[in-house]
Amino acid sequence: MTSQPQQKNTGLIVLAVVLIVALIGAVVFLAIRNKEKDDDIKAMEEMAAFEKEQLQDEYETLAMQFDGYNMNISNDSLADLLSKEQQRVRDLLEELRVTKATDARRISELKKELATVREVMKGYVAQIDSLNKQNQILAAENQQVKQQYNEVSEQARGLREERDQLTEVVTRASMMEVINFSYKGLNNRGREKKHIRNITTLEFDYAIQKNITVTPGIKTIYLQIRQPNGEVLVKNSSDTFEFEGKQIPFSIEKEFEYTGELLSDVMYWTVEEVLEEGTYNADFFIDGNLCGSFMFEMKK
What we know:
With about 300 residues, the chain is an alpha+beta fold. The protein has 3 helices and 9 strands; from the N terminus they run αααβββββββββ. A hairpin with a 2-residue loop joins strand 8 and strand 9.
C-alpha cells in the first residue's frame, strides 16, 4: 500500500509535466503566430512594391504618350498646356521613385493624381484629334484650291501664249521685208569687178516687199555692212540708230516713200578703206526692225 508522501510527489510531477507541456505548446503557438505575421508582412511589402512598380510603369507610359502627342501639335497654346502636364507627370514620376512602397497613403494619392492627369490628357487628345481633322480638311481644301489655281494659271499661261503669238503674227505682218538682194563691186568707171583691188564702189540692189498692213509714208532704211572680222563699215562714228533699245552703227541710210506696194531701190558705198577678203553681211533695218539679212563674198 502506497504511502501518502509518495502520492503527493507523483501529483507534483504530473502537474509539472502538464505545465511544461503547456508552456512548450504556448511557445510553439507564439512562434507559429509570429512566423505567420512575418509572412503576412512580407507578402504585404511585396504587394506594395509590386503596386508601386506598376504605378511607376503607368507614369512612364503616360510620359511617353505626351512625347508622342507633342510631336504632332501645331497649335502653340495647346502645345504649351500639354508641355505643362507632361512636366507634371515627370515631377510625379520622380516623387513616386523616391516614395517608399510602404507609404500606402502617398501611393494612393499618386494613383489619384495619375487618374486626374489621364482625364486631362483625354481632353487634350480630343482637342488634338479635332485639330488634326480640321488640318486634314484644310489641307484637302488647300490642295483643291492649289489645283484650281494651277489650272487657272495654266489657262492664263495658254491665253498669254496665244496673245503673244497673235501679237507676234500682227507685228510680223506689219513689218517690212527686204527681198531680191544682190551685190556688185564697181570700178571707177562703173564697171563690175570681182577682185577687191579693182573695186571703188559697192552697189547693193534690193526690193521692199509689198505689205498693205504697213502705214504708208516717208521711211528711213539703214544698211549695216559687216566685214569678215565683224566690224561695221562706217564713215563717221556718230552714224548710229536705235535698235532694241541700243544705239548701233550703220553704213548707209536712205529715206524713201512707201505706199505698201513692191519697191525696188539701190544703195552705194564708196570704198575709202582697205577691204578684207572673205564673207560680208548686209543687214537692213526699217522702223527699228531687222528686215533682211544677206551675205556676199569679196575676193582679192
